[in-house]
Amino acid sequence: MTSSLTSLKLAAAKAPIVPVLVIGAVEQAAPLAKALLDGGLTIAEVTLRTPAGVGAIEAMKAAAPELMVGAGTVLNGEDVRCSMDAGADFLVSPGMSPGLLAALGKHKLLMIPGVATASEAMSRHEEGFEILKLFPASIAGGVPALKALAGPLPHLQFMPTGGVGADNAGDYLALPNVVAVGGSWIATQADVDAGDWAGITRKTKEALSAISR
Ligand code: 3PG
Hints:
Blueprint: H1 6-14, E1 17-21, H2 29-39, E2 43-47, H3 53-63, E3 68-72, H4 77-86, E4 90-93, H5 98-104, E5 111-115, H6 118-127, E6 131-134, H7 142-150, E7 157-158, H8 169-173, E8 181-183, H9 189-193, H10 197-211
Parallel strand pairs: 1-2, 1-8, 2-3, 3-4, 4-5, 5-6, 6-7
3-phosphoglyceric acid binds next to loops.
């Protein structure tokens, strides 16, 4: 069966870093998308933590259709509906709840749910989720945890997020069960608020060049 996250995996194979974005104003979305693309990224996650989040997803897709844009911090059915209406390519949540699981419906194959234990990972896999977000990665055991999980659960694929940065992204990405890493360091809320598009492009290039060594 072809899954709906196939495009994301292909995009991640080119540039396996997913910036986790907190966008305060929709006007920031288009220049931010361009800055990320200029740096070589192919995927971005816009969190729904600000009122501008949904509009920012729409604006990023309009400004940069080639960038895969996901919705992050998707917590309930309303978040799923708004994200899909805005054109989100994928969904990310910090965990899973019975209500969110039910609300996902046919969009389940687009969701990357947060997990922090082997039991959660096994449950989400059983429910049909294809990529799991180890979250918060640094607290849930980081690289050693992913190495340990690969023994009994080699079929699971992860996108660790939370505590990933320039210093350890390469260590995560060296693991065979890591598809991509997520993190806010590429484009922090302060970078975005300051409109530091050149700085974001620079950090993106540095991060991609560090992991290709
Ligand atoms: C988040 O929840 O904001 C993400 O997990 C990013 O975490 P980070 O700021 O540690 O990269």
